């Protein structure tokens, strides 16, 4: 599943990923920069804007499935976090299995 830490839909997708795992489907989270145009310092949200109604919808769905959700006040730039997440994912794939897990 492609994922960006700033995406509230991806956060909600965690619940859906758990459902797939229960069915025996392997879900691999892969970093994806959803909004590369966000500046390094992030950007603020306009109160009462279109994004507020989107967040209300996501908040309601998270509540329905039991996921905590706090409305963000800023959209961060996630490039560094995504780069580190991908490096960790690749390193984990290369790491030998611990003894007893083979």
List the helices and strands and how they pair.
Blueprint: E1 2-3, H1 8-22, E2 30-31, E3 43-44, H2 50-65, E4 74-75, H3 79-94
Helix pairs in contact: 1-2
Can you describe what's shown?
By secondary structure, this protein is mainly alpha-helical. The chain has one domain (about 1-85). It has helices at about 10-20, 50-65, 80-95, and strands at about 1-5, 30, 45, 75. The strands form two sheets. It has a two-stranded parallel ribbon. Helix 1 (about 10-20) links the parallel strand 1 and strand 2 (about 30). Helix 1 (about 10-20) runs parallel beside helix 2 (about 50-65). The longest helix is centred in the middle third of the chain and has 16 residues, at about 50-65. The two termini are about 25 Å apart. The mean pLDDT is about 85.
What's the short story on this structure?
Helices cover 46% and strands 8% of the residues. By secondary structure, it is mainly alpha-helical.
Identify the notable features of this structure and list them briefly.
mainly alpha, about 100 residues, 4 strands, two-stranded antiparallel ribbon, 3 helices, two-stranded parallel ribbon, single chain
Q: Count the E strands.
A: 4
- The secondary-structure element order is EHEEHEH
- Strand percent estimate: 5-15%
What is the straight-line distance between the termini? 26 Å
Number of domains: 1
Low-confidence region ranges:
none
Derived from helix and strand composition plus strand pairing, the structural class reads: mainly alpha
Mean pLDDT: 83
Number of H/I helices:
3
Spatially, the strands of the biggest sheet line up as 1-2
Helix content: 40-55%
Radius of gyration: 16 Å
| Major sheet description | 2 strands, parallel
Shape: flat
């Amino acid at each position: 599943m492609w994922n960006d830490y700033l995406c509230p839909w991806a956060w909600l997708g965690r619940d859906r990923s758990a459902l797939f795992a229960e069915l025996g489907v392997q879900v691999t989270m892969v970093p994806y920069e959803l909004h590369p145009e966000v500046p390094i310092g992030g950007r603020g949200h306009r109160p009462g804007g279109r994004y507020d109604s989107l967040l209300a919808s996501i908040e309601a769905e998270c509540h329905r499935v039991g996921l905590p959700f706090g409305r963000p006040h800023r959209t961060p730039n996630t490039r560094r976090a995504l780069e580190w997440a991908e490096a960790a994912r690749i390193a984990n794939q290369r790491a030998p299995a611990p003894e007893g897990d083979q």
